[in-house]
Records
---
Amino acid sequence: MRGLIAESWLLASGFVVGVGMLADSSVMIALGALLFSTGGFARLWARLALTSVTYERDFSMRRAFVGETVDVQTRLANAKLLPVPWIELREQVPRDLPITGVRVRPSGIPRVSLIQRSTSLSGNEALEWRFTLAPVERGDYRIGPARFRSGDLFGFFEREETVERQDALLVYPQTFELPELGLDSERPFGDRRGGNRIFEDPSRVVGVRDYLPGDPLKRVDWNATARVGRLQSRLYEPSRTLSTVVALNITTMEHSWEGYIPLLLERNISVAASIARHVAEAGEAVGLIANGAFPDSDRPIRLGAGSHPEQLVHILEALATIAPYTTATLASELESRTHPLPVGANVVVVASLMPQDLVATLTRLRGEGHTVHIVKTSDAVWDVALGRNIAVHDVSAFTIALEERSGMHASAVPERLRAAPIMGSAR
C-alpha cells in the first residue's frame, strides 16, 4: 500500500511539471522538478538502505544442560557511508525457550515468538545487543531467521530482506546423580554375574578351526569349509570387557494412537541420560537403544557401546533431540539381528510401561547370558511377571520428589509438559 502511495506521489510530481509547462509557470515547473528529484533520491536511498548491512549472533556456548544460561551477543552493522535512517529487525525465536534482556512478542506462527527492534545506523556504524537464553526443556533450538525492513528518510519507500541463517542451541536433558534417583552410585545394579569371565566377541573373527560337536551352525564358516573340504568353525577374539546398553522405552501410553504423556517421556529421558552419564564417567563402555527417532527422521536411535571420550556427548545429543514418535517396539529393537547386542552386555531398561512383548524379550536376553535390569519411572502398578532373575529398580518416588523440588511437576511444569496425554503425536 505504501509503495502504491509512493508511485502515485511520483506521478503527481510529474503531473505538476506538465501543468507548469502548459501554464508556462516556472514556479510550478521548479516545484514539480523538486518533488520528482526528491522522490527519485528517496527511492534510490531506500534501494541502497540495506546494502552492506549485516547481522551476526555470537553464543557463549552452543550446548548446554537444562538450568544453565547462555548469553547471546548480536551485532547489527552498516558497512557503507550512506546512513540508514531507520531499520526494523524481526528475529524468530522458539516460544518454549525463555529469553531475558529483550522484549519478546507473539508472531502468529505456531511455537515461534519474535524479537523486534527499531533503530537507525550512521555510516560505518555497528550496534550490539545482548540477551540471555535460559532453557528449561531439552531440545534442539533454532534462533532465526531474521528479517529487516528499512527505507528512505521520509518513509515513502521500503525494502525488506531476510537473513536465512539460523543458529542452533542444543540443550541436553537434565541429569541427576544416581543417589538422587535412589540408586547406589558404587554398584547401582549390583554385582555383574560373571564379570571376570572371558567372552568371545563375534564381531572380531581371528581365524578358523575344525568344527567340534556342539558348535552352533552360526559359527560355521562356509567359505573356509568349501576351501578345505571339511567343516570349519570361526575363532573369535576373546574379551573381558562388559558393556552397558541403556534401553529407553519412550512409550508412555498403552496404545500408540492414544498419544503420549510429555512429563513421563521427559522423566524417562532424564533417567536414561543420568545412567549413561554415570557409566561413561566410570570409564566403562556404554551404548543407547531407543524405540524413538531423531526429528524429521524414521531412523531408530541406536548407538553402539563404546568408551571413547565422545561417547557420552553422542548419547546426550541423541537424547536431547529424540522425538516422541515410536518407530517400533523396544522389544523389536533389542532383538534386532542387524545390530545384535554386545556379548554379555548389561542391559538397563528405562521404562514407565512394561508391555508383555518386552517382558518376553528381556526374559530371552537373560537366558542368553545378558544381565538385565529395569528402572521403573512411573508409580503405576505393572501387572506382569518378570521372574526372579530380572531386577526392577523403582525410581518413581525419587523422580517425582526431584520434579517437585525443581518446580517441574504437576501444575508447575510448562503447559505442554503436563501429565495429560497429547493426542495423535505417536505413530
---
Amino acid sequence: MSLHAKLLEREAKGQPVRVGVIGAGKFGAMFLAQVPNLPGMHLMAIGDLSPANALRSIERIGWKTERHSARSFDEAIRKGTTFITDDWQAVVAHPAIDVIVECTGNPVAAVEHCLEAFRHGKHVVNVTVEADAFCGYLLGRRAAEAGVVYSLAFGDQPALICDLVDWARSCGFPVVAAGRGHKWLPNYFESTPDTVWNFWGLTEEQAQIGGLNPKMFNSFLDGSKPAIETTAVANATGLEAPDKGLQFPPGSMDDLPNLFRPVGAGGMLEKTGVVEVVSCLRPDGSEIDHHIRNGIWVCIEGDSEYIRRCFQEYGVTTDTTGRYVAIYRRWHLIGLELGVSVASAALRGEATGTPVCFNADVVATAKRDLKPGEVLDGEGGYTVYGKISPAKRSLEQSNLPLGLASHIPLVRPVAKGQMLTWNDVARDETLTAYKFRMEMERLVAEKAAAAD
C-alpha cells in the first residue's frame, strides 16, 4: 500500500500520525505549509525557544489562527490543532506524539533532542544533517536499540540521493558516483555572512522577505553544506569520500556521465563508489546551460554488452563510451517533501536514509589565518568551513568535526586552508554532543581493531 493510501486509512480511522516539530525556521515552516494537505497527519506541537518566531513563521505561510490556537497538548489533541511551546522536552516526552522532526539547525542541540526522543520511544526525522555528519552512525545505533526509526529528511538532498542510490542498486546497477549540484567557484570557501547574498544572487531585501538566515545560506555557498550532505550520503549508503575532498567539477546534466566515470575512461574519478558535487559555474563564473544546481544525481554503469545495447536502443544519454549513465532529479523541494519521511517512519517503520557506517567526516578548515584566543563560529560563519574527509584519516589526525567547531576558542594559530585538530582548540568536554562523538570514535576504533 502506498504511503498516501496508508495516510488516508489513518484519516478514516480517526487515528492520525501525531507529529512534534522542534524548531520552526525555514525548513520547519516549509513542512508546516504542507501539513494542511496531508490526510492522516496531525502536527500536534511545535517546540521553539522563541514561540514568537514560530508564530512569525506560521504567519508567513498563511495558516489560519484556529490551526494554532491550542493552549495545551490536550486541547491540541481534542481539536486537532497545534500547540506552540518553548518547552521542547515536553514535546518529546508527550505520549501521544509518534514522530519528532528535529529542524533546529543546531547540531549540538540536535544530538540532545534526538537522544531524548529515543528515550521516549519516538521516531526521529533529523533535518539537522550537521549532527548526522559528525555522529549519525551512533545516533542510528541508539535508535535501533530503542526500537525506533532514525531518518534523514526527504526533500533535503541527502535523503533524495540515498533514494536514487537505493533505486540503482535495487535495479542491479553498480553505482559509480552519487551527489548533488551546487553553485561553486574556488573563492567561495572564503565567503562570510557579509558577502553571501551577492554571491548567492539575491538582494538583502529578498533575503529578508524570505526569512533567510545569512549564516545558514553561507554554509551552502562556502562548501560546508555540500560537504555535510555528501558525508551523510556516504555514511548512509557505504559510498566513500573522495581522498582529496570534493572537486566541484563544472558540468551540465548531460555532462554528468562523462565527468563521473573513472580517469581511465576519460572522467575525473580516481576511484569509483564515491560521493561528489557538480558545479553550475564555469571557472570564469559564467553559468552553464541545463545545470543541476538544485538537483541530485547518481551515475551508474552498464556492466555488460547487452545492458549497454539496451541503453542505446531506448535512447538513454550515456557517456562517450556508452557505458555510463546519469539518472538525476533537477530540483529538490526541501521541507515541502518532508511528509514522506514522517509517514515512512510512522507507517512503515522505515527511514528515508539512515547511517550504516562511518566512511566520511566533515573537518573544520580555516577560512583565513586564525590566531589564539579567537572563538570559532562554526558552519557558515567567519572563521571555518567544512571539508569532507575519509573518516579513517580524520580520526587518525584527530581532526575537529565542523559540527563541534562553534563557540570554542583557539589555543594555537591555524593557517588559512589548514584542517583544524582537537589540539588547536579548548574543547568543551561537558557537552553531550562532544561526549557522544567521543563515544562514537571509541566504537569505530574498537570495530576496526576487531576487524584486524
---
Amino acid sequence: MNIGDKIPAILGKDQDGNEIKAEDFRGKKLVLYAYPKDNTGGCTAEACSLRDHKSELSAKGYEIIGISKDSATSHKKFIEKQDLNFNLIADTDTTLLQELGAWGEKKFMGKTCVGTLRTTFLVNEEGVITHIFTPKEIKTKLHAEQILEVIGKM
C-alpha cells in the first residue's frame, strides 16, 4: 500500500475474536502498525512505546492497532504481560500483512527469510493512508515519539 490508498475494509480479528473493520474507525485517525512477533525485544519495546504515549496519540485523535502473524492466544498473553492498552490483530494467515505490503523477504540474523516487515501506517478519518514508516525508519524504543513528531508536521 502507498500514501493515498485506503486501508482494507476488513482488517481481521483481534485477540478476543472480534472482527475489526476499517469502518470501525470512520471519523477517527489510526496508527496501524505491523510487527514481527509478540514478546520479543524490539516488538516489546515498540508496543511499550505506543502504550506509554497512548494518551498523547489519543489527544491528537489517533487510535492504535497492532498486527502480527501471532495467534489470538499469543496476543492475549502479550497484552497481559506488557499491560498494553490497545488491540492486536491476529493475522495468522498473513492476509492483511500481505495486503498492506508488510510481508516479504527480509534479512534476519544474517539469513534471508520471509516474514513481517516492521511497518507503521498513519491513517486519516476516511481510512486513507497519510504516512508510512518503513522498517529502516522505525526506532522501536522511540517509535511513539517518531509518530508524534510526524503528526506535529501534518
